[in-house]
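Pinned message: reference record for DUF4440 domain-containing protein
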Amino acid sequence: MTDYPDLRAVVDLELALQDRAVRGSRRLAGELLDPQFHEFGASGRVWDRESILDMMAADDSPPPRCDDMVATRLADDVVLLTYRTGAPGRPALRSSLWRRRDGGPWRVFFHQGTPVT
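Predicted structure (C-alpha cells):
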C-alpha cells in the first residue's frame, strides 16, 4: 500500500497532539497546527489556532484514550482521520483533516468533536 507511510504519519501526529509535553508547548503544538486551523469542539465551542494553543497549554487533564483510528486519503496532500475518544465522562467521535502544502509537513487544518452517549 503506497499510502501507508503518509497515513501512519498522520495517525502518529494526531496522537502526538494528545501528548502532555506537546500540548503544553505552544511551539511543539504550533508546529502541528495549520496557520488556518479551526475546530468545532465537542463542547460546542468554535476554536481558532490561537485559542486552541492557549487552551492546550493550560489543560492539565490526562490525555483521552483514542480508539478505532481510521486514516483515509482524500487527495494527494489531504488525509481524513476519524476515531473515538474515551475521556472520563466525555466520550466523543472525532475527525481531523490533515493537509500538506507544497511538500511541507503534515498539519491539522480542521478538527471536530461530537459527543456520544
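Pinned by admin. Summary line: The helical segments are 4-16, 20-23, 26-32, 49-58.
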